[in-house]
Amino acid sequence: MAIQNQLLLICSIGALAGLLVLATSRSCSADGAAEAEEIQMPINRSNFPPGFIFGAGTSAYAAEGNVNIDGKSPSIWDTFANNHPEKIHDGSNANVAIDFYHRYKEDIKLMKETGLDSFRFSISWPRLLPKGKISGGVNPLGVQFYNNLIDELIANGIKPFVTLFHWDLPQVLEDEYGGFLSSEIVKDFGDYADFCFKTFGDRVKQWATMAEPNSISIGGYTIGVYAPGRCSSSLGSNCAAGDSATEPYIVSHNLLLSHATAVKLYKEKYQGHQKGEIGITIVTQWFIPKTESPADQEAASRMLDFLFGWFAHPITYGEYPEVMTTLVGSRLPNFSKTESEMLKGSYDFLGINYYAPMYAEDSSSSTSNSDTISYSTDSRVTLSTHKDGNPIGTPTTLPWIFLYPKGIKDFMLYIKSKYNNPAIYITENGVADAKDVEQAQARKDDLRIKCYQEHLWYLLEAIKEGVHVKGYYAWSFLDNFEWDAGFTVGFGMVYVDHKDNLQRYPKDSFFWYKSFLAPPKSPANAFDEL
User: Fold this and answer.
1) DSSP letter at 487?
2) What DSSP line would sit under 30-93, residue for residue?
3) Which positions are catalytic residues (predicted)?
4) At the N or C end, where does the chain have fewer CB atoms within 10 A?
């Protein structure tokens, strides 16, 4: 969700109709000049391929709340947000969050009203396994909650899309061996995944092993703004411990091996009879060369490898991108032959979280001393959101999100070319608005409607050009806790009022999405005719 904010921090360190009508949208060309682009194309869900899934999502820590009840143990995010309120913009935490744990039935009614095909959520590892390990025992109340949630979704005609791990590692494993800094995590993650497949896989047909592992490595171990808050002291992020030159790569290595282990288990033990699919969700930006120079073009390519290829390349080809091997050197761990083979092709789909672009400028000539070497400097790229005083896209409430919908098409075509045209779900896309306004104002979210409209338009263009996109999930269905931003912003199409007992109030975007998903009758071959 906030990867672009992380990248900017890194840079500083080193009328609601069922038609989709795009009118005079502001975008930004690669040369930095804002330009008007007028597209008039009435589309709705019938224009997408048969079987295309439309949904929305949330995550366990961001929504559930109820941290200390019904047998759940703390996660590293519980610890981080409660112990370091200064690292959350409003000093808040998700101890209550939006109480999805108790209010999921009323939320599912809203999902059904919207017409969602699917709902993407994550399972809380410490709610299921309070001691982190199968050997420590299973929490029956945690199992009951997720069984009830899955059954309620299905009873309302909504397919569950489940993420196994969305950042909330059991604190006990962090305390015992350092969490993803240790290779011990691979077996424990595999055991946890195995239990989830066995317990819920008869009803869950879409699994993601983890969400935004690159956000974990960057936010948690490079700049320290995410749990567990580790970084080099030279980066000035008030981190108690860490090494931004080595730990991001160690953590990513163990995340990749944990992912591959879970996929191998699913394919060997469950997929044959459960008939589901499994993948991973990676967040990225689309990087635009700041100038037309070959050096900046190479910088944009290099940054894609360092952010997206860091995970996509190993799970496709069994090895890290060559440019990372060259530039990171001995600090980048190696895969054994067995590990490489296990990683290669370890997904049925790629989940892509896309929000915004950034400019990439070559900084190869810059030198770093030993105190400042880190993941932040290894790519030799300087990132920015403005050129010649012009923003890269439409400004939003957040200073680090500029809407550039064409970027989603460009990135889809990039994946098609570089990664053998895999199956893709857009697992997150959306825009935030400020929460420091009255409810009535917050519900008028025209910019979010614009965001959905334009990204769906360009996504459809990519599909027409042969990209294998199977679904689109808006982030998020409800306003929820947004990590380091706390409750200062909301990405939801449903407003949650923290001044009124967490009451839910649909925003204009909710009704737009409802209309888009329930269009008037149209030809069965609308997709082919477009």
Assistant:
1) T
2) TTS-EEEE-----B-GGGSPTT-EEEEE--HHHH---TTSTTPPPBHHHHHHHH-GGGSTTS--
3) 428
4) C
Q: Which residue in the block uniquely carries the two structure tokens 């490898």?
A: 305
Its pTM stands at 0.93
Host domain of residue 81? 3-14+51-394
417 in any annotated domain: no
Closest CA to 49 of 321, 424, 347: 424
The reply to whether omega before 228 is within 30° of 0 (cis) is: yes
- Collapse the DSSP code of 362 into the 3-class scheme (helix H, G, I; strand E, B; otherwise coil) and give the result: strand
Tell me how far the alpha carbon of residue 386 is from its chain's centroid: 24
Instruction: Name the band, by pLDDT with cuts 50, 70 and 90, for residue 19.
Output: very low
Q: Number of folded domains in the chain? A: 1
Region 227-249: mean pLDDT is 89
Please check whether residue 373 is in contact with residue 367, taking contact to mean a CB–CB distance below 8 angstroms. no
CATH code, domain with 328: 3.20.20.80
- CA distance to 242, 409, 481, 495, 507, per residue, from 441 (Å): 43, 32, 20, 10, 9
Q: So which residues are the catalytic ones?
A: 428
pLDDT tens figures, 48-60: 999 999 999 999 9
Cross-strand pairs, 352: 282, 426
Does residue 400 lie within any of the structural domains? no
Q: Residue 523 falls within a domain, yes or no?
A: no
